[in-house]
Amino acid sequence: MKAFSRLYTELDETTSTNLKIEALVRYFRTAPPENAIWAISFLIGRKPRQVVSTRKLREWAAAAAEIPDWLFEAAYDVVGDLAETISLLLPRNFTVSELALRDWVEEHLIPLRGKDLEDQRKEILSAWQQMDQAQCFVWNKLITGGFRVGVSQKLVIRALAKFSHIEETVIAHRLMGHWNPDPEFYHRLLSANTEDADISRPYPFFLAHPLEDDVDNLGPVNDWQAEWKWDGIRAQIIKRQNEVFIWSRGEELVTDKYPELEEAARKLPNGTVIDGEIIPWAGNGPLNFSELQRRIGRKKVSRKILKEVPVILMAYDLLEFNSEDVRGNALSWRKEALASLIAEASETGIMLSPQVSAKSWEELSLTRDDARSRGVEGLMLKRQVSPYGVGRRRGDWWKWKVDPFTVDAVLIYAQRGHGRRSGLFTDYTFAVWDQNALVPFAKAYSGLTDAEIRQVDRFIQRNTLEKFGPVRSVKPELVFEIAFEDIRKSSRHKSGFAVRFPRISRWRRDKKTAEADTLETIEALLGSQ
Question: Does one domain contain both 252 and 338?
């Protein structure tokens, strides 16, 4: 646990990619397999779910620190991060446990879920008493389900590849799908034998970057394949040894949630892996993504919801063909083979994503302008000769989305962020006018520069009107342009509207509060879709 806490501190204290990789490699060189595999699991985002409510943790920590609840809450308000607040306030012992990471996780963390509240309290207090501040901080991150540090899965894969001298693509493939964080899997993960036998395992997804440059700079339009950017859930369908597996991009096995796709995939030949998008579909076109959300997260999919929200897989790419990995073949070859495969299967549940033809970039741009009326987000541009890569890489695949909707809204609430931004107010709620009243419209957490965040934070500190726990209401004086991808009526929101992917596009210093947009403006945007 000491070594893992030290690694966390090293990763958290630098923004240098190279220094983070060096820290990870140093850790893997010395960590026993039983500890290293748990570290990998946490670092790539497979954090445990929260087992104890934050309210109870705050109550127990305040009692352990022998301070009143109000003083704990005041400290929490200043620090902004619960795990760090607890680690700073608890009295420290001179005797620190030498228990390993695996033992803390398997003997203390995981069993917490099955204990009653009093036993949980005793277990957590005992753990706090055996840890120094760094270990206590990491432990608190784990028990609150909020463990995250400034590394991506891709960065961990790079470090493992450097440590083991195994190709990144092999490491990435092995980390996909279900696996147990035990020494046996750790040895398989770093095995020099690259013939993996797990029939259910998907391939790492290849992701596109947003197109930032002028499209004319991509070269001849004929060098590229254009297709619609569908709005759904990215997924892979796998058919191997007469079994079907459907994996989401979030590495969740969702086969049982889409029985119609499982049935369609059974008509595919063995040794097939298709990359595509799960889309709610009725008749000849897509339904709004909000319809698909009615199926997401359900433990059981009823006949009623299957009938009301049918889905298809819009097939983009072919990753495995006749049990061979064909990701290295040119996109044009893979797409042609995919078309033949779907045609032979004669299955309407799996549709080939059609190519959008154009003789020039200008013509393609005009076609893109029609995206919203087709229920799509824009175009995908893929180089005809490109292989299927791993992760998000520039050059071969680009997202060419239509311009987002924008609304000028007023900042009315703020809350402190997490991690590096735990000391700053970075989580904002924005409102628009409904006659003479400001109505909450959207929340946004990204889009400002670090300098702008500090300026907004100072404004919030000086212009707080009320406090509601960690939330502050502020003087309605700052106006921001909020961008979002989609808008729908919603009875669950005070404004009556719900938006997708809201973010701050710019600070409207040139506008006064009275000039912010209204609900009528939003109604007009809804009608323009």
Answer: yes
Domain count, the chain: 3
Contact 410, 434 (CB under 8 A): no
Q: Based on the fold, state whether residues 328 and 252 are members of the same structural domain.
A: yes
231 close to 399: Cβ distance less than 8 angstroms: no
List of residues 6+ apart from 15 with CB closer than 8 A: 150
Q: What share of the chain is helix, strand, coil (3-state, %, to 5)?
A: 40, 25, 35
- In a 3-state reduction of DSSP, which class is residue 447? coil
Range of the domain at 82: 2-143
Same-domain check for residues 231 and 112: no
Same domain, 422 and 494: yes
Last residue of a domain, one of 372, 401, 430: 401
| Helix/strand/coil for 5 | helix
Q: Phi first, then psi: what are they for 311, rounded to 5°?
A: -130, 160
Question: Pick from 124, 143, 162: which residue ends a domain?
Answer: 143
Strand partners, 409: 480
229 is catalytic: yes
Q: Is 149 domain-assigned?
A: no
The reply to whether 382 and 498 lie within a common domain is: no
Q: Transcribe 130-152 into DSSP letters.
A: T--HHHHHHHHHHHTT----S--
CB count, 10 Å around CB of 294? 14
Query: Do 106 and 226 belong to one domain?
Result: no
Helix (H, G, I), strand (E, B) or coil at 67: coil
Is 324 found in the same domain as 343? Answer: yes
Residues 483 and 413 occupy one common structural domain: yes
pLDDT in tens, the chain (529 residues): 999 999 999 998 888 999 999 999 999 999 999 999 999 999 998 877 788 888 999 999 999 999 999 999 888 877 878 888 999 999 877 678 889 999 999 999 999 888 899 999 999 999 999 999 999 999 999 988 888 888 888 899 999 999 999 888 788 878 877 889 999 999 999 998 866 657 888 999 999 998 888 888 999 999 999 999 998 999 999 999 999 999 998 878 888 889 999 999 999 999 999 999 999 998 888 988 888 888 886 767 888 989 999 999 999 999 999 999 999 999 999 999 999 999 887 767 999 999 999 999 999 999 998 888 888 889 999 999 999 998 888 889 999 988 888 999 999 999 887 656 667 888 999 999 998 899 998 999 888 888 999 999 999 999 999 988 788 999 999 999 999 888 888 877 788 888 888 999 999 999 999 999 999 888 888 765 5
Catalytic residue among 229, 239, 257, 335: 229
Residue showing tokens 């203390």? 108
